[in-house]
Amino acid sequence: MIRPLSSILVLCLAATNLCAQGSKQGAKISFSVTRFDPMDRPAPEFMVKNGAKETPVKVPLTYIAGPFSATLRDDNYLDFFEPGAKAPVLSTGVPPELRKDLLLIFIPVKESFEILKIHTLPSAIQGGDRYVINVTSADVSIKFGTANPVLISPKRAAVLHDPAAGKSPTLPVIIHQKDGDKWKLVTTENWPHDVRFRTFLFLYTSSQDHHMAFHGISERLD
Questions:
Q1: Contacts with 67 (C-beta within 8 Å, 6 or more apart), sequence order
Q2: Looking at CB atoms within 10 Å, which of 52, 90, 114, 118 has the fewest?
Q3: What is the C-alpha separation between 170 and 92, in angstroms, rounded?
């Protein structure tokens, strides 16, 4: 399944004006966090409200942290506070269908962040699967094992399902990228195959050599 990022990408806002007096605490949610940042800046640290308690949330680069529990403001907004602050610095709405199995990926934008919200239902993203996010400026085609190639347009995401490779320790992968009217081979390689893990993979353009680069975050499933 291919998903437009516009449907799951939420611009985080400085939320002082959202934290008006009289706002009510609503439903509780469970979520995990990680981040995508090719510049490898320091990990941001926030606090979230969990009823009358505060929970620290540090957003790592190379693994998924959580799950964390939090209480939504006005039964809708998940607020992130800097330690000791009274008003949130980031705020994002969380609809009822995303309040479990929710992964938040923080992406730096200037002095703030965008948050990519992914519903990580075990039935939708299983062990051995790759959830691939194309943040390059061109179409990408990925052939994963014996499966048919999957086309992922810029700013879209798709799930590459495990092509039932048995106990094979690796799977062949062929990646092409659209260059004008032609397809250019990017890489032919083998990816590790382990059904105990699922992987969230960013495809982006390196600022150093302007070639496609990869940032992957694996999550072990129980």
A1: 30, 31, 32
A2: 52
A3: 38
Sign of the C-alpha dihedral computed for residues 83, 98, 161 and 166 taken in this order: positive
Q: Please give the model's pTM, rounded to 2 decimal places.
A: 0.85
For residue 67, count other CB atoms closer than 10 A to its CB: 14
Confidence at residue 86, expressed as pLDDT on a 0 to 100 scale: 87
DSSP 206: -
pLDDT at position 111 is: 84
N-term to C-term CA, the chain: 24
What residue type is assigned to position 42 of the chain? P
Distance separating alpha carbons of residues 107 and 82, to the nearest angstrom: 17
Q: Supply the pLDDT for residue 22.
A: 46
Confidence bin at 24 (pLDDT 50/70/90):
low
Grouping H, G, I as helix, E, B as strand and the rest as coil, residue 67 is strand
**What residues contact residue 62 under an 8 Å CB cut-off, 6+ apart?**
217
What is the pLDDT at residue 23? 53
Reading the block at residue 192, the tokens are: 């590790």
- Average pLDDT over the chain, rounded to an integer: 88
Phi-psi category of residue 143: left, alpha or beta, with phi > 0 → left and psi -120 to 50 → alpha:
beta
